[in-house]
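Support request from a user on the community tier.

User writes: "When I paste my structure tokens into the form, the page sometimes reloads and wipes my input. The last time it worked, I copied everything first. Here is what I submitted, just in case something in the input itself triggers the reload:"
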């Protein structure tokens, strides 16, 4: 994902997104970072925030919504995430953050 990056600065009303990548003037991706090891909690909390940000300003093109969290998706969580992302009319990804090796695994 390339573009200008804003970390904890871009406001959507009174709320600030964790990370926003501007691909163009009105073309953005929004990332929400969660720290819980509970995958379902991360998805529930981040998705609400991401949808709030994505729908706040009219005329924005949302390229991607991304949940970044340390929780690894098991079979049940992966199936849940796929069902959720199928109902969202925007590109939705879950990036598993591995604290040990500081790497990411992109799901979805």
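"...and here is what came back when it finally went through:"
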């Amino acid at each position: 994902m390339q573009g200008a990056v804003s970390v904890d600065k871009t406001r959507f009303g009174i709320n600030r997104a964790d990370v926003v990548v501007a691909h163009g003037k009105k073309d953005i991706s929004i990332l929400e970072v969660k720290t819980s090891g509970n995958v379902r909690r991360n998805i529930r909390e981040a998705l609400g925030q991401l949808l709030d940000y994505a729908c706040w300003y009219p005329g924005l093109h949302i390229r991607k919504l991304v949940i970044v969290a340390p929780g690894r998706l098991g079979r049940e969580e992966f199936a849940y995430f796929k069902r959720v992302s199928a109902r969202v009319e925007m590109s939705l990804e879950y990036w598993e953050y591995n604290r040990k090796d500081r790497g990411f695994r992109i799901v979805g």
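Agent notes: The reload is a front-end session timeout and is unrelated to the input. The chain has one domain: 4-107. The longest helix spans residues 39-56. Escalated to web team.
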